[in-house]
Specification:
This protein is an all-alpha fold and 150 residues long. The chain contains 4 helices and no strands. The radius of gyration is 17 Å and the shape is elongated. This is DUF1772 domain-containing protein.
Length: 150
Amino acid sequence: MELVAGIIAIIMIGVVFGVDVFFSIIGVQALRKCRDKSMVDVLGHMHQIADKRMPQFGTVGIFAIVAAVIFNGGLRVGNLEYVIAFLLMLGYIFIYNFKSKPIHKVITTAAEAHKVPSNLRTIQTHWDRIIIGRAILLTIVMILLCIGIM
């Protein structure tokens, strides 16, 4: 059961990992070339949907990490990679809720009102740095989870 839980964690967190890596490598560069109104319209509606759907994958992944630890005998040295992955995911949740989500809210609100925030490029540059950091953090989590199922 530990292996199944570990695989579920990899798949679920892998969805979030894939999105963050995509945006850190491709999205950041593409958005820099967009007109402000286009950026607000697309990102605002994308964040509106993603902020509702993406946490489900992360939540299932985190519960699967906990299940893998439990099925593998609880808190012990043999579960170190799962425990570290779990703690990093808690850090990820903090970064998402207190750094990324407020930016999403500004852009989503602007898209709904058909307006462009005067500080759009500034907050987008800030978001670009955050998404790159999130992608790096999730890369470490994915490596730890893969080690965990070995």
